[in-house]
Amino acid sequence: MAKHILVALVEDKPGVLNRMASMFRRRGFNIESIAVGPSETPNLSRMTFVVNGAATMVEQVRKQLDKVVETVKVSDITGDNVITRELAFIKVKANSANRSEIIQIVDIFRANIVDVAPDSVIIEATGDEDKINSLFNLVRGFGIKEVARTGQIAMTRGGAGPLPVTKAPPKTKAKGKKATK
Amino acid sequence: MKMSGAQIICESLVKEGVEVIFGILGGALLPLYDALPQYPQLRHILVRHEQGAAHAADGYARATGKVGVCFATSGPGATNLVTGIANAHLDSSPMVAITGQVARPFIGKDAFQEVDITGITLPITKHNYLAMDAASLPGIMKEAFYLAGTGRPGPVLIDLPRDVQQEQAEFNYPNKVNLPQYKPTLQGHPAQIKKAAKLIGESQRPLIIAGRGIIISKAYAELKELVEKGQIPVVTTLLGTSCFPESHALSYGMLGMHGMAYANMAVDASDLIIAIGMRFDDRATADVHAFAPHAQIIHIDIDPAEIGKNVRVDVPIVGDVKLVLSELNKIVSKTKHIDWVRKLDDWRKEHPSLIIRDGENLLPQYVVRQIYEATKGDAIIVTGVGQHQMWAAQYYWYDKPNTFISSGGLGTMGFGLPASIGAKVGCPDSTVWCIDGDGSFQMTIQELATIAQEKVGVKIAILRNAYLGMVRQWQELFYGKRYVATPLSSPDFVKIAEAYGLPALRVKTREEVAPAIAKAMAEPGAFLIDFIVEPEENVYPMVPPGAALAEVLEEPRKEAKAVKDSAKLPVSNI
Q1: Which residues 125-164 of chain B have a CB within 8 Å of chain A?
Q2: Distance from CA of B106 to the nearest CA of A (A)
Q3: Above pLDDT 90, what percent of chain B?
Q4: In this model, does residue B562 exceed pLDDT 70?
Q5: Most CB within 10 Å of its CB: which of A63, B38, B221, B310?
């Protein structure tokens, strides 16, 4: 079992997210996070799924997702050469006595305070999963009131990346890269 | 030219070469049905239950290779199609199902007879559509037929709100589909084909496992060429039955749970499995971890997701099996495997899997064999699901391509009768026999009315053993002979047939079998024979659940004493 990042380029049509998400459910996967937004091409969306599973099972799901008619391409981009980020809002209990301590921690993480209220602050943090988790653990002591996270988006470094927007048929070759985590 | 959505659907069906539609109308499909009389080239066959419509369209599709079409109204009409759609999905049968939907303003309001059929059928269709305006219909229809019939075929559903059927729109049928991202791989990768040819050339004990992909792709000649060039023995899956002539010296019948003992032993002993157009279903592989333990595996299939799904594969080749095989045949070397073939022939002699015992009672195997004798193999055999299905696969010799139609993946009892209607309508000049069990038959018995009304000349053989026989066999062997809910009383099928206006006979002895079949064959139209057969006959050979193919049980009756406790059954897909 390892964490895998699957990135899918799909047509922006009603029901596509449902089709994709339903495939994970049917094959017994729990989606850890999912992020969807427009891609660089009009009418195509890019979806980023983070799932836990054995490599062979994830590969099976990837192929099944590739069969969804609206799918242009699905890649398992798990590996070293990938940048992942997510955005988090963390609402932390704060008062005049400890606010500056919170601000210090936020500065170390190069995060921002985006709202200050008499009894709380909202931290806005961007980073990979580890960074968000570390920040979360550090501010937990102050008392967490609310957390919202976007789920990860991911992109491979350099080159054209694994997902050029082409009209080529989906590649079927297995990607057996080991996950880093 | 402007026309209504209903007319656009009909025009599109005509453009796609559709000749027959199986369906039942209802409120949400009234506009579509109202347009039908303007298109006399579209024959509508009114079934008695929507499941029958889907199975009939499926049977039609399998018999003809064309896309089968069925109609059903919204709500319960649509949900009644679901079993038939799932059945077509698992067996890769091309089908377009058109369902009525409540008018657009009512969608999402839990209106009368509203159901989210695109949501319900999402995992059991190749693709589905909710058509939200009439202008989109020509494109949707073109895509639906293209998707259903190309690549790995499958069912496509179009949900059609009632007011969309009435809406006016321009009709221009597109020449091309607009599906840039849907491009099934047809040509196999040359390097992979070369690798496969090399393995075949080096193999001492090669074995072909041929599946329904051969039939879908009509690769009969290519398969035969490969078999003969490489002198490679062939076994088939249940749905591969009739893809290779069973009288051929290198044919070793069906493999799997109720496959021939020697076929299963061949898989176990082989050093190279060449799997063509099959998907390593658990009924074919038995214990997948013990499957072909000495073999490398070449897997040829059009669906990349099937590669490596159930078994490890050494040489995957994604492509249309007909195209891949014709390329492979060009480079595969002529070889002989005299020792290997001799070994298989010895096994066939030592482990004869098809024996019809002498005895007082009428045996179901004998009936199947007599149907073979009467038709000389020149018939399309359609089955339901259960013991009779296995006997029909085992005891009839399939020499002609695509003459066996059965529900494999979903194992849908009740498939036989409506599917045989579809097969006969699609192939009116062929003799079509529906071999069914008393349990399976009663699940869709109402389609006798369709046969009577539409004068479909299907010959029906019911092997009546007064049990849900296959389940009873499992209870006998693995549940201490506790026959819970399997004894089955049935009505007088002869009287039932007569009530529907169909001729029928009852047969109780061996002597009556051949004359009854002859009488049925002489009848121009439909005919039903109610065969009263040995009640507790079991299907053999049998690979017990969780066992490996090599652990096949052969001798009838003997194993019945070795009752196992169900609690100790290994975990497997029963």
Answers
A1: 126-127, 130, 147
A2: 18
A3: 93
A4: no
A5: A63
Q: Which residue among B118, B126, B185 places its CB closest to the CB of A172?
A: B185
The half-sphere exposure of B334 on its side-chain side, counting CA atoms within 13 A, is 0
| Residue A170 banded pLDDT, cuts 50, 70, 90 | very low
Q: Indicate yes or no: CB of A172 within 8 angstroms of CB of B304.
A: yes
Interface test with B, best of A63, A70, A173 (most B CBs within 10 A): A63
Long-range contacts of residues B231-234, Cβ cutoff 8 Å, at least 24 apart: B231/B335, B231/B336, B231/B337, B231/B341, B232/B200, B232/B206, B232/B207, B232/B208, B232/B274, B232/B337, B233/B206, B233/B207, B233/B208, B233/B266, B233/B337, B233/B340, B233/B341, B233/B344, B234/B207, B234/B208, B234/B209, B234/B210
Helix (H, G, I), strand (E, B) or coil at A53: strand
Residues A18-42 have pLDDT tens digits of 999 999 998 888 899 999 999 999 9
Let me know: does B310 contact B279? Beta carbons within 8 Å.
yes
Under an 8 A CB cutoff, do B181 and A70 touch? Answer: yes
Q: Is B259 helix (H, G, I), strand (E, B) or coil?
A: coil
Which residues, including other chains, have CB under 8 Å from residue B496's CB and lie 6 or more apart? B445, B448, B504
Contacts B119 to A, Cβ<8 Å = 18
| Interface predicted TM-score (ipTM) | 0.86
Strands B404-405 and B315-318: unpaired
Closest-CA distance of chain A to residue B157, Å: 13
pLDDT at A176 over 60: no
Residue B201 has pLDDT above 70, yes or no: yes
At A83, the amino acid letter reads I
pLDDT digits (tens, 9 = 90+) for B428-450: 999 999 999 999 999 999 999 99
Q: Are B68 and B422 in contact (CB under 8 A)?
A: yes
